[in-house]
Design goal:
By secondary structure, this protein is of the alpha+beta class. The chain has 28 helices and 28 strands.
Length: 859
């Protein structure tokens, strides 16, 4: 992996020297089918690349990027070069460049099993082979020779020879002639968003049509595809509905027609990401095709991702950041626009509740890690870039943009976006390019705002301070702002402060609200003076800013006694989020948070919030509860989940959510036998349809507790002999409570590269069972002994999966903390990205230990 890295300095030097006129890429993937070569090497395909480019300093040298097992031929300006002299496995050396150059590289590239480059998947259900590419940030070099950096944009022409009967797609429109698929030339785009999808995919089409105010009409061919085995479950009508709603929304607000011709969306197997914004051919993980019953939260999430990727067609594809430092210029905007358009254009009108509850939780965690960074980050190389697709770049950045809209106004913000697209179309930008248009449209100085919000790290806490007069009315209400010692920046916040009291029917409702510009450690909300004394003060009501909400003592007591009485779903979601942050910060005992979930979770109307509460409650038990209380907490959670499962409306999505939570918490014999009975049909809960996906959800705890053995899991796979079934079975097999099972799972992931990325992920997920802490204890020492080797030998994606997924977080003790510190001290020269992953996991454990101490003190 180290030889594959590219530094920012190298990229800047190359960009100053070279400009690219175009690529022609010819791939022959007919080798994707048939038997392996049998020589022990990787399965390969032929890749021939022609790059035409200019050099600002004739006579100078540079390099092209290529990761391939072998290179057959290299030609530069008609001069044949010896591949053994110019290709080192990751780069092609280019010397004595002319003003105008033509490079031709003929290589044997390897199919991927890790989801990086050209991924090859064999469907166990029918033996069909499916291919797709995934490149971000820098894996197109695994498929063709390239200048692998975002600011060397160029038009691309692709042609692909594929097995007979296959269909091939790329960014442009394609046609099959004489056995070769040839695709229309693209607009100038970055290498990382080029794409090829090939195989016997199930493909559905539709058309989007839009007539603009000037009378012109735009027609966009739409396509959606998935594996044939998933076709019976593919609700393409809903995918197309959201797609058309999104295109209408962005055309209404961006005043720049969709620029990339067709719009295909491919749902592909063994995908590492949620989705990728390749222009004209967006790729998604196929788990967005639902094989069983799911809640509306799943449909909302899919719609959000569809819209997020669509926003990238403008923010990221049309206008692209110069280097990964400004990754936020695409990801923060797409994350914000995903929620903005979700609420504005689709049936999911509560999208901002999901954003406040789910997306921001990701941001708050990331922003309190030692590795937190400004939204505009310092990205030294590609390994840094890979790790910065994180909660800061996505969710915090989107939260800050929401704050920016409140600061400059929605009209000025959108007008700034429109000018930005027109001014920089098909180009590359930095932070200043965006700030300049926003200054134009808003009339505000964006420099101070950018310094406070984009160029500093850390999250502020806002706490209300209420003073009452003799008559019981508010004499003064102030907002106190605090920051961590490590990141002391106090930022300007535009917030709404809401005052709540119980009404005649006992409902907890807002009766007063004021917007306040918080600046500095203490800000008085003058408009609230004279209001009735509140029972609850909610700082950041309506979720206008990015902060951690704290409560005064009266407000916290009100929530303990009546959180479920809050009638506004967004206010309720914000309170839940604040209570979870308090739990993570060791300000609220884990058992108290679990008690709140048990008391009020059953009254939560928003299904997405409810499912988030289930995840948080489980995390509170596993990580933040005192060890001697865990068994009690487990029993309480499982009992509460079963109670709510039986109370829920038969057939409802709430019933389904409680069924899944019950399975996740079941541990005692009676609960496990109930799960077994539901599987076998000897037990029934009115309205609960135990479909195939729910069967696997029930089987994992049964496997983890020794109730479902290998034979039973094999029988279930025979019942569901699909790619999805195989992933479930692998996870369940690794979950079994046996030393031999754990040793085998460890060897398959750590000592072998036979498993695909999806099966590595499934094995890791099954390996780490909270009920098996003692069984897993020996692997703490093994982990620290192998991670540097794993990082060096495996691809960065698998390296990240192993280092994150196998960290001995369940061995939460001062001893494990010391072992992590010892490894860090002894490996100061290790890859910075690897050290970052260990530092983050170590910090999560330290936070868990503080939470456990808080919880123990409450007992």
């Amino acid at each position: 992996m180290p030889g594959e890295n590219l530094s920012r300095d190298e990229a800047r030097e190359r960009a100053a020297l070279l400009s690219v006129d175009g690529y022609e890429v010819s791939l022959d993937v007919r080798s994707a089918v048939g038997a392996d070569a049998g020589d022990g090497g990787p399965r390969t395909f032929r890749s021939v690349t022609t790059i035409r480019f200019r050099c600002a300093e004739p006579g100078a040298g540079s390099f092209a990027d290529l990761i391939a097992p072998s290179v057959t031929a290299v030609s530069l300006n008609g001069r044949d070069l010896d591949p053994s002299e110019v290709f080192d496995g990751t780069r092609v050396l280019l010397e004595d460049l002319a003003a105008d150059n033509e490079l031709i590289v003929d290589a044997q590239c390897a199919y991927s099993r890790t989801g990086e480059g050209l991924h090859r998947f064999v469907d166990p259900e029918d033996g069909e082979v499916y291919l797709y590419t995934q490149y971000e940030p820098a894996d197109s070099r695994r498929v063709f020779a390239t200048f692998e950096q975002p600011d060397l944009k160029a038009p691309f022409r692709f042609e692909v020879q594929a097995p007979e009967g296959w269909t091939v797609w790329s960014n442009g429109v394609g046609q099959l002639a004489d056995g070769v698929w040839r695709f229309a030339e693209t607009k100038p785009i970055s290498t990382y968003i080029t794409c090829v999808v090939a195989g016997p995919y199930h493909y559905v089409t539709d058309t989007y049509s839009r007539t603009f105010d000037d009378g012109t009409t735009l027609e966009i061919p739409l396509g959606a595809m998935c594996r044939k085995g998933l076709a019976p479950h593919f609700d393409s009508d809903d995918v197309f509905l959201v797609t058309k709603q999104g295109l209408d929304f962005f055309h209404d607000h961006f005043d720049y027609p969709y620029p990339f011709g067709k719009y295909d969306q491919a749902f592909v197997p063994e995908y590492n990401l949620g989705a990728m914004e390749n222009p004209g051919l967006v790729t998604f993980k196929e788990e967005f095709i639902f094989r069983g019953k799911v809640t509306q939260a799943s449909y909302e999430n899919r719609a959000n991702v569809i819209l997020h990727e669509m926003a990238h067609m403008w923010f990221g594809d049309l206008v692209t950041m110069e280097w990964w430092d400004d990754l936020w210029l695409k990801e923060s905007f797409a994350d914000f626009m995903g929620a903005f358009s979700l609420v504005g254009a689709t049936r999911f009108k509560d999208g901002w509740i999901t954003f406040a509850n789910r997306r921001k939780a990701w941001a708050y965690r990331a922003d309190q890690l030692p590795s937190t960074h400004p939204i505009t980050a310092d990205i030294r190389d590609l390994q840094d870039a890979k790790l910065n697709f994180d909660g800061i770049t996505y969710a915090k950045g989107a939260s800050v943009l929401k704050q920016l809209v409140a600061y400059v106004g929605q009209d000025a913000f959108l007008e700034g976006a429109r000018r930005y697209f027109k001014r920089h179309a098909y180009g590359n930008t930095r932070l200043g390019d965006l700030l300049s248009v926003l200054e134009e449209t808003s009339g505000r100085d964006m420099g101070a705002w950018a310094r406070a919000w984009l160029q500093t790290a850390g999250v502020n806490s806002l706490t209300p301070q209420v003073l009452l007069d003799a008559e019981g009315r508010v004499s003064e209400l102030a907002v106190l702002q605090e920051a961590a010692e490590s990141h002391p920046e106090l930022r300007p916040h535009r917030v709404a402060v809401g005052l709540y009291r119980r009404g005649a029917e006992g409902a907890l409702e807002r009766y007063a609200r004021a917007e306040v510009d918080v600046d500095g450690p203490r800000t008085v909300a003058g408009d609230l003076a004279g209001a009735q004394a509140p029972e609850l003060v909610l700082v950041n009501d309506d979720d206008l800013t990015y902060c951690k909400i704290r409560f005064d003592e009266e407000s916290l007591a009100t929530l303990r006694d009546g959180l479920g009485d809050l009638t506004d779903p967004l206010a309720r979601a914000l309170c839940w989020s604040a209570l979870w942050n308090m739990t993570r910060d060791a300000l609220l005992p884990a058992r108290d948070f679990i008690d709140l979930v048990l008391r009020y979770g059953g009254r939560e109307s928003d299904i997405g919030v409810l499912q988030m509460l289930h995840a948080w409650a489980n995390s509170a038990l596993v990580h933040y509860a005192a060890p001697d209380w865990r068994e009690t907490g487990e029993r309480l959670l499982a009992g509460g989940a079963l109670r709510e499962l039986r109370r829920a409306e038969p057939g409802s999505e709430h019933q389904l959510a409680w069924a899944r939570f019950f399975a996740a918490t079941a541990a005692v014999e009676a609960d496990l036998q109930l799960l077994l009975g539901l599987l076998e049909g000897t037990e029934k809960i009115d309205g609960l349809d135990v479909d195939q996906e729910l069967r696997w959800a029930f089987l994992e705890p049964l496997a983890a507790h020794g109730v479902a053995d290998e034979k039973r899991l094999a029988a279930e796979l025979a019942r569901d002999d699909t790619a999805s079934g195989k992933r479930h079975q692998v996870r369940c097999l690794a979950a079994r409570p046996s030393a031999a099972v754990k040793a085998q799972a460890w060897a398959q992931v750590v000592e072998s590269d036979v498993l695909s990325n999806a099966l590595v992920e499934a094995t890791i997920a099954g390996f780490g069972q909270p009920s098996q802490r003692e069984l897993l204890a020996p692997y703490a020492e093994k982990y620290f002994a192998v991670i540097e080797r794993v990082w060096a030998e495996r691809s960065i994606q698998i390296g990240m999966d192993v280092v994150r997924g196998l960290f001995p977080g369940l061995q939460d003790s001062e001893g494990t903390l010391a072992a992590a510190d010892a490894w860090l001290a002894a490996h100061e020269g290790a890859a910075p990205a690897l050290r970052r992953l260990v530092v983050e996991a170590r910090d999560d454990m330290a936070r868990a230990l503080r939470g456990q101490a808080c919880d123990a003190a409450a007992g």
